[in-house]
Every structure is written in structure tokens, then in C-alpha cells.
Amino acid sequence: MNTELARIHPDAHCELDFRTPLELTVATILSAQTTDKMVNSVTPTLFAKYPSAVDYAAADVSEMEVLLKPTGFFRVKTKSVIGLGQALVARYGGEVPGKLADLVTLPGVGRKTANVVLGNAFDIPGITVDTHFQRLVRRWAWTQESDPAKIENAVGPLIPRKEWTILSHRVIFHGRRVCHARKPACGACALALWCPAYGDGPVDPGVAATLIKGPDAAARARAAAFGLPIRTPGEIAALAGGEQSA
Ligand code: SF4
User: How far is ligand 1, taken at its centre, from the CA of residue 19, in Å?
Assistant: First the structure.
């Protein structure tokens, strides 16, 4: 499944715009309960106004709230981002630390954010267990755990460590584009051959193709309709000798 994920999501990457560990930490904090696209719409102004941890530490609460309002939960996020700046200045010389144990002590930073920062800003492999990752690995029976730390521990040994970060991006891409929470596009899913949850969503290729999202949704839908490269139930049946594989 990991190989197939790489084939169907060769463009998987962190969808938050950033240039430094500080920018990625702030952007990831802001991404709670909103889209990466929304975060990317506010961060150019934010990053220009607050280029360093010192600037966040000294920020005016009201001004910051105005900037962060479009991302939702802006009061909590303002408190976290200003608190982040103050903690970085007080304990880490104004720099974002490159260790999980340190990152999770910072305001607004949990394991998910810490792994995003480690994997994408420090090139230290990390598994990002967000809502998509959690849903998909459970559907695939990679684990039945629901606690993010336990999911990390269960999935980590299944995949080479150096691939943890890119695996996270691929799984999240698949969750955002194909394997949705309510109606997964099973009939247009390249992983159907191996997926124990195949059938949780529509298996008709035409119906499933309409559920696919993302910038390449039209191309993927066309491919699904022709059986390439996203496999249809007919191709799956042929590959599996007429039986669905679990
Ligand atoms: S077959 Fe269905 S449930 Fe399984 S990964 Fe694909 S879309 Fe998700």
C-alpha cells in the first residue's frame, strides 16, 4: 500500500507555506480547525509583520487577533502564537528547537505539530497523526489504536523510518482527495485491492469519481472512468482472481 500511495500521490508534500522552522511552527498552530489554504492566505502578512520569535513575544494581542481572525479560534491561536514567541525567547534563544521533547513543551505545540515541524523543517522523520491519518490507518487495519502516540508507535515499525514524513503526506493527501470520512471514493481508489474497508463508500467507478477532490480531481476522475491509473472494481477483480483482497 505504501508503494501504491507513492505512485498515486507523487506530489505529496507539506501544503503549508513556510521558509523557516518558526514560520512552519506558527502555520501549523494556525492550521487547527481550518484549511491549509486559509492559513496560507494569512501567513504572508503575518510573517512579514512578525519575522522573529522576539516579534511574536512582543506582539499586541488585538492586532494579532485581527490578523488571525479568518483562521477561526483566533483568540486561542493568538494566545498560543504569542506564548510560543515568549517561550522561545525565554528558553531557546529565540530559535525553534529540533527535538520532539522540547517542541511539545511549547504553547500550542502538541505531538502532531511537533512531528510536522521536525519532518518538514528539520528533515527529522516524523509521523503526523492528524484526523486523516488516524482514519485511514484504522480503515487499513494498520492499527486499531485511537491515541495518536500509540498510532505513531504502531505504524512506525511498518514503514522505513526515513519514509515517515513522506508517508504522512501521502496518507493525508489520500484522505483529503479520495478516502473521505463520510463517503470514501472506493470505486475510484487505487488502494481498493488491499483495503479491508473497500465498500465503505460507493464502489461504482462513475459515482466514486465524482467524490474525488483536489487540484487533479478531474484527471483522476477521467482516469478512474477508464480504469487507469486508479483501479476500478473490474480491474481489482481481475488482479485478485475474482475475489477482493483484504
Ligand atoms: S478502498 Fe475506500 S475505504 Fe479503502 S482506502 Fe480506498 S477510498 Fe478508502
Answer: 34
